[in-house]
Amino acid sequence: MDLGISGRHALVCGASKGLGFGCAQALAREGVHVLLVARGAEALQAAVDKLKADPLLPQGTQVDQLAVDITTAEGRSAVFARRRDFDIVITNAGGPPPGDFRDWDREAWIKAVDANMLTPIELIKATVDGMAERGFGRIVNITSSAVKAPIDILGLSNGARSGLTGFVAGVARTSKLAGGNVTINNLLPGSFDTDRLRATMEGGAKKSGQTVDAVRELRMKSIPARRFGNPDEFGATCAFLCSAHASYITGQNVLIDGGAYPGTY
User: What digits encode the pLDDT tens for the residues 242-264?
Assistant: First the structure.
């Protein structure tokens, strides 16, 4: 299927690896010019090199990079100094650390809200009006399945990402945006085979006294699909939400978790 977005310009945050890279790769393979943003310059360069060497990359597709912290005002200013108008924006920031809410002070909460709620809102604010004026825009926020099924040790993430979800539910349905072919949706990943998941399992292994392999096996058995997701399939879902064919999908929380969420709604 031709997604109808070749030649568009995309900003992809947290794009050096994992789910962010999966999204950047899927968009680039559709002929979208991508600007990859991440904090780690070395990992970001490796990601760009990989994309440029991709045999499925259409000729003429631009792959650019900027090593900044998108959660800071300075980082966002650097991005928009590079390019003002984006047709597609993928917001993504590393989740806050797990723990016991009794140990989190105000600074920990502010940091979580700033990275996982306020930063996406700032990126939305900076881009949606221009998208509406041009008659096309796609914003996808990478959040978490914990928005649907909260996890006690991920309270910082539960709170911050739920705040973003509530904000998006309102702004995505405004007539100026929805009527201007601008969509805003959230992608909620479950257990995907990424560095963050591996770190979580290592922590679980230390806490339980089990091996990492045992923790991994137990975790996979709890998922109806009996496996973890991979960044490629996550990126493909993201690319579809950014496509010309997804203009009637907005304000939605798309759960991609192998069937792990047990609810009906």
Answer: 999 999 999 999 999 999 999 99
